[in-house]
Amino acid sequence: MPLLTSTTAWIVLLVAGLCEVAWAIGLKYTEGFTRLVPSTWTLAAMAASVVLLAWSLKTLPVGTAYAVWTGIGAVGTALLGMVLFDESREVARLVCIGLIVAGILGLKLVTK
């Protein structure tokens, strides 16, 4: 595939990060990959996440893209863990999640 425009690469990276959230949450539902349907969806999300990350790397710097990809995954998974699994909503945890978001936005702002 040809190089992506910068905007398109960032959108692809965002979708890759969302796929990472999907597979991370999906792992909880696979019960150790013993349930077929959740396992299939989780593996598909894993593949999509990595393929989309690789595609975005045709345009974006690897260090920035990887940090943003994992940051989206970490933030999204932590937030969904709070919603779906009643995980801790302590202020310190929310502040730390906010710091990850700030890091993601900072990397986006300094990367062309």
Beta-strand content estimate = under 5%
Alpha-carbon Rg, integer: 15 Å
* Average predicted local confidence, pLDDT: 95
Number of helical elements: 4
Classification by helices and strands: mainly alpha
Short description:
The chain has 112 residues and is mainly α.
What does this entry look like structurally?
The chain has about 110 residues and is mostly helical. It has 4 helices and no strands. The protein has helices at about 5-30, 35-55, 60-85, 90-110. Helix 1 (about 5-30) runs antiparallel to helix 2 (about 35-55), helix 1 (about 5-30) packs across helix 3 (about 60-85) and helix 3 packs antiparallel against helix 4. The two termini are about 20 Å apart. The relative contact order is 0.16.
Core attributes:
112 residues; mainly alpha
List the helices and strands and how they pair.
Elements: H1 6-30, H2 36-56, H3 62-85, H4 91-110
Helix pairs in contact: 1-2, 1-3, 3-4
